[in-house]
Amino acid sequence: MTKIPADRIAAIEARRDELQAMMATGDLPGDRFVQVSKEYAELEPVAVAAAEVRRLRAEAASLQHMTHDADEELRSMASEELRANDAALADAERKLALSLLPKDAADERAAMLEIRAGVGGDEAGLFAGDLLRMYQRYADRMGWKVELISASPSEAGGYKEVVIGVEGRGVFARLKFESGVHRVQRVPATEAGGRIHTSAVTVAVLPEAEDVDVAIEEKDLRVDIYRSSGAGGQHVNTTDSAIRITHIPTGIVVTQQDQRSQHKNRDKAMKVLRTRLYELERERLANERAGARRSMVGSGDRSERIRTYNFPQGRVTDHRINLTLHRLPAILEGEMDEMLGALIAQDEADRLAQLDG
């Protein structure tokens, strides 16, 4: 476990006190006050954690001294209290170390989930629909808002591809480890012989971009407008409202035809394009950093098989952390906290280990 030096703890608390004093004067201009307030809000929980470590270290030193006292009863009492203090100190040291790890700037952002049926035909499409409902139910539990961006239904009642936007506090931080290949093993409803089929669905979780993140110039876009296709009847648009936007420098193509309004389709297509360009830039920067971390949990490789949902055995296995939970129905109902919590804990452990190294 990383032990934060005492002088760094003192510096953290001193900076917190300095910021507090600056805000108390009332002399700061508006922009500077906002800047100082933001730094204080980010530093305050770190300073609280640092103060707790400092207190427990002082207590440990005092108790350690008492274990050498001439009074046997006092030595025994001090030894017992020292054991409890050591456990509390280890926990406090870990919390402080975690608070000092570099933050992913995108963690607090909304996210876009792209769910695509892979190998397995109709069964893969049906499972794509199952995953969509799982994420929707989890979002409901978290009090997040879900917006359907686009959907390409399959003939069997599932989805060839579906894209949703999820808004709320810490969405990307909770869902970012869902990127990858999700494998399902079950007997399809159409399988008369009762044979188990294996299918796959790919999930990509992208932090949603803000207008200031990505500069998109009109000269870099080719916009094609065409008539939406549909299943027939009232669902077919009779106007040219579908949009296909090609970002020429990167070759990224986004199509949108879910809305009857050409303007609304363009807005949604630009939202998707902006998010994909933002993710492209995030990946480029991560690859450029010396020793960029590619941990087994956080790699985000969309071609990597990350999880298996086995219906006959009622289990879900996450292969990155070797975790198996025998509660598949509940997980598909959105009870994902145990799985996601284990992934986040493993990521934290990996990053702390890197800090130690």
Describe the protein.
With 357 residues, the protein is an alpha+beta fold. It is 46% helix and 20% strand. The protein contains eight helices and eleven strands. It is flat and about 90 Å long. The protein starts with 5 loop residues before the first helix and ends with a helix. About 4% of the residues have low confidence.
Approximately what portion of the residues adopt beta-strand conformation? 15-25%
Number of helices: 8
Main sheet characteristics: 8 strands, mixed
List unreliable stretches of 5+ residues: 231-237, 289-296
Spatial gap, N to C terminus: 10 Å
| Silhouette | flat
H/E element order:
HHHEHEEHEEEEEHEEEHH
Mean pLDDT: 84
- The neighbouring-strand order within the major sheet is 2-3-1-5-4-9-10-11
Which class of secondary structure composition applies to the elements? alpha+beta
Using the CA coordinates, give the radius of gyration: 26 Å
Oligomeric grouping of the chains: single chain
Give helix % range. 40-55%
Instruction: Count the beta strands.
Output: 11
Task: Give a quick rundown of the structure.
The protein is of the alpha+beta class.
